[in-house]
Amino acid sequence: MRVTRLTIAVAVFVLGAIMPLAAFAHADFVSSSPQAGDTLRTPPESVTLVFDGELVPDGTGFTVTGPNGAVVGEGALDLDVAERDQVTGAVEISESGTYSVAWTAVSADGHEEAGDLAFSVAAEAPDTAATPPDRPAPRVIGAIVLLVATGLVLRHARRAFR
């Protein structure tokens, strides 16, 4: 009987030691869109955070705060993604500046992680290609050149016939 109990205890210990570590893995932050530190020329319409493991909806989400401290968006676990590893939300950004994303993520094993990241939105540079410079249209210039050339030819022809 002692040998059986000892064998069972050793077997349980060995199985516990070689059990896949993935069963105890936490979901770590992998990437974001926009990425941390990005400077964007146009404001994003949404923010997405990606993790390396399955998350649960309760306690998972983020808040995006603008340069003046006002909340401009919030996100939650995207239940349409089969892996349940993305947190997404719409943002309404109307001014230049630095935006902070404060997030919490609760993995399927119940472990909670928190973090933050920041990205910036720069004022759009004026589109100089879309605004033509102030100069006459090519047809107007061509017509003026044609009139001047015609006038010179006629003047020269008059002198020749005198």
What is the distance, rounded to the nearest whole angstrom, between the alpha carbons of the first and last residues? 141 Å
What's the order of the H and E elements?
Answer: HEEEEEEEEH
Number of strands: 8
Structural class: alpha+beta
Unreliable spans: 9-15, 18-23
Q: Quick one: biggest sheet?
A: 8 strands, mixed
User: Residue share in helices?
Assistant: 10-25%
Q: Which term fits the overall shape?
A: rod-shaped
Alpha-carbon Rg, integer: 34 Å
β-strand amount: 25-35%
Number of helices: 2
Kindly report the average pLDDT value: 81
CATH fold descriptor of the largest domain = Immunoglobulin-like
Strand order of the largest sheet: 1-3-6-5-4-7-8-2
CATH-scheme architecture of the largest domain: Sandwich
Explain this structure.
This protein is α+β, with helices and mostly antiparallel strands. The chain folds into two domains: 26-121, Immunoglobulin-like (Sandwich); 132-162. 25% of the residues lie in helices and 31% in strands. It is built from two helices and eight strands; from the N terminus they run αββββββββα. The protein has helices at 2-18, 138-160, and strands at residues 29-33, 39-40, 46-51, 61-65, 71-77, 86-90, 97-106, 112-121. An eight-stranded mixed β-sheet has the order 1-3-6-5-4-7-8-2, with no helix packed on it. It is rod-shaped. The model is unreliable at 9-15 and 18-23 (pLDDT under 50).
